[in-house]
Design goal:
By secondary structure, the protein is α/β, with parallel strands linked by helices. It has a domain of 233 residues: Rossmann fold (3-Layer(aba) Sandwich). Helices cover 43% and strands 17% of the residues. The protein has twelve helices and twelve strands. Strands 3-2-1-4-5-6-10 form a seven-stranded parallel β-sheet, sandwiched between helices. The protein has a three-stranded mixed β-sheet with strand order 7-9-11. The chain has a two-stranded parallel ribbon with strand order 8-12. It binds nicotinamide-adenine-dinucleotide and thymidine-5'-diphosphate. The site of thymidine-5'-diphosphate has 12 residues, from helix 6 and strand 8.
Length: 344
Amino acid sequence: MKDNGVRLLVAGGAGFIGSNFIRYILGAHADWQVVNVDKLTYAGNLANLKDFDEDERYRFVRADICDAPRIEEIVAAERPDAIVNFAAETHVDRSINDPTLFLKTNVLGTQVLLETARRQGIARYIQISTDEVYGSLGSEGKFSEGSSLRPNSPYAASKTSGDLLVRAWFKTYGVPAIITRCSNNYGPYQFPEKLIPFFVTLLRENKPVPVYGDGMNVRDWIHVDDHSRAIEAVLLRGKPGEIYNIGGGNERTNIEITKMLFSFTGKPELLMKFVPDRPGHDRRYAIDDSKIRRELGVAPQVPFEEGLRETVRWYLENEEWCNAVRSGEYLKFYDQWYSRQGRA
Ligand code: NAD
Ligand code: TYD
């Protein structure tokens, strides 16, 4: 795709990865423009991008990706060169509690964006997916792009379904779509329900942190800026119809992560509390990212210890942001999931 004067439509750009991606793109490309289309669910927060309020290269439009006429109208008005879709319901525990919204947004919303891209002849469509579509690994092996799709949570099943629609819209209608599947991201502006920001905000208040099961589940952590750089490469040089895995090459057990958080916050390890496991909890994720390294020349750059230390510092210094995003709606879920099910 051309790399000058690009007009991007980013769906879900008010969330964690979308807002970091927009910040990265506008920093890296002075002549690009971004329109951010987001429903502003509990996870979407305009404060994540308030530094761009005055930037004429950036615009926000509030809309639900499931609302086909509205999306059609926005895309017709904006005429983007590419659509990058981050919009999704994303928290596994919420999907266990109430899967319906996950199917609506992650499946039907994806179909609306694909259909709009098809009708309006958009030159690139990037679907931001996840390694969770591949299911769970034992102690050996890694997920490659050809691994079987074996999602285990309602969240993962909804993302897998979205990916299958992307494939069908490419094969049947020739929509120039690409899928990226990344491992667990960390960095600033992540909603404090996900492991790292959740635990840091609890530790700040000297509260115990609930580690599910035996704490030996493994995730491959990548800094959100490394994810943004990889998406940029896929956008510019990726091949339509292809899938690209993105990983951090950085496997850690939840106990290791928790111990690092104790160390970086200066809190005692006696605040580690083992609680009943998440149902269907995937044991291990690990990514084979040799395809994106080889074909697009991208590899993660942020050293994990350094990135995590800075991330922890960001949450400690941005207490106001954390308090503001934890609204009444969030507290209802927190109460139901952690208290009623014996995890608190
Ligand atoms: P997030 O929950 O922080 O943000 C999701 C954003 O989508 C929010 O701004 C929300 O308001 C918006 N949104 C939700 N439903 C919408 C709808 N119907 N219409 C318009 N906007 C809507 O999520 P995130 O962690 O930033 O994840 C972004 C994408 O990356 C998701 O597709 C997720 O599956 C994928 N992903 C996340 C990770 C991770 O570690 N967080 C890893 C791999 C892939
Ligand atoms: P999470 O951040 O929810 O990401 P995902 O499930 O999509 O990988 O969880 C990361 C890991 O941390 C996962 O193995 C579940 C575990 N976890 C806990 O042990 N306790 C918690 O309170 C949370 C939210 C997660």
